[in-house]
Amino acid sequence: MTKTQPNKPNLSSTVAEVNFASYILNASGPRCTTEAELHNLGQSESAAIMTKSCTLLAREGNPEPRYKALPQGSIQSMGLPNLGYKAYLDMLPRLTQYNKPLIVSISGLSINDNVEMVSAFQKSAADLLEVNFSCPNVPGKPQLGYDFEQTDKALAAITKFGDKPLGIKLPAYFDFNHFETVANILKKYPVKFISSINSIGNTLVIDPETESPVIKPKAGFGGLCGSYIKPIGLANVNAFRQLLPKEISIFGVGGIYSGSDAFEYLLAGADAVQVATCYQEQGTECFSRISNELSQILSRKNYQDINDAKGALKLL
Ligand code: SIN
Predict the structure, then answer these.
(1) Is any ligand 1 atom within 6 A of the Cβ of residue 199?
(2) Which NCBIfam families does the UniProt entry name for this protein (predicted)?
(3) Which of 135, 225, 278, 286 is flagged as catalytic?
């Protein structure tokens, strides 16, 4: 006799009109630089394959040690190590075999770099283009997303080519004035999604035993990641969900280790979530585990579909 299985909730989601089979994917950052790592993501339950942020030319990144696991997350200053955008252009057709969205992360060191890469990837097998306005780790290069005039100028330049959905990876903001200013700039352009947030830039972790910072680049200043930043990510996602039209999708990023973390981002209004530090620490197994945990939470709360809980935060 076959036992009837209770219906599993539907975790499939749509981001920028592209279908995602589940709610959980990798963030640009850990373990997505080489072709082998991207195939590994293809074989995993990550809902998409997201690349490491690429630059015009290949980069080795910052000197080691540049990543340190912490009790509730990590600090890193990788400095955009990547193979250069042409390598990703070349490998994209080989990644289509996994039948899941391909997202290219682009992080030019100037507006012109971003223009060149965005126009090249517009003619590629990528499904979405995420342009990184928030890397804090290139010495001498400020985070574009904190300079509103340059953000506006960069968006004007990169949104002119092709129809592939283009989104922006934003830094964290901490002031309602800034949420509104950024939302108003985004609304002027055909931006189809945001990814919110990147690591909290330029934080400092000191080891009192060695009396030194725990990472080497930038005199120890680096991006803080993991559970430490989840409340900031939730606030940014929720603020932007309220300020942006629903046609602009939102990827939530920051401190997602469990189904409960993903559920909190869902309530805040995220259309899907990207996992970085947990994936760095646990490998591809985390995608299926977090999805299963999210599924159990939705079932327990009688949500049949992820969309029923999206943005459904209940205020006190
Ligand atoms: C890095 O490679 O330094 C991290 C990328 C980022 O923070 O955007």
Answers:
(1) yes
(2) PRK02506.1
(3) 135
The CATH number of the structural domain formed by 13-68+80-199+227-309 is 3.20.20.70
Whether 107 and 135 have beta carbons less than 8 Å apart is answered as yes
Q: Is 137 in the pocket of ligand 1 (CB under 6 A)?
A: yes
pTM (two decimals): 0.97
Residue ranges covered by each domain of the chain: 13-68+80-199+227-309
In the reported structure, the alpha carbon of residue 136 is separated from the centroid of ligand 1 by a whole-number distance in angstroms of: 7
Q: Is 278 a catalytic residue?
A: no
Over the stretch 160-218, which tens digit does the pLDDT of each residue have? 989 999 999 999 999 999 999 999 999 999 999 999 999 999 999 999 999 999 999 99
Token representation of residue 131: 């342009």
Task: State how far the Cα of 219 lies from the Cα of 215, in Å rounded to an integer.
Answer: 8
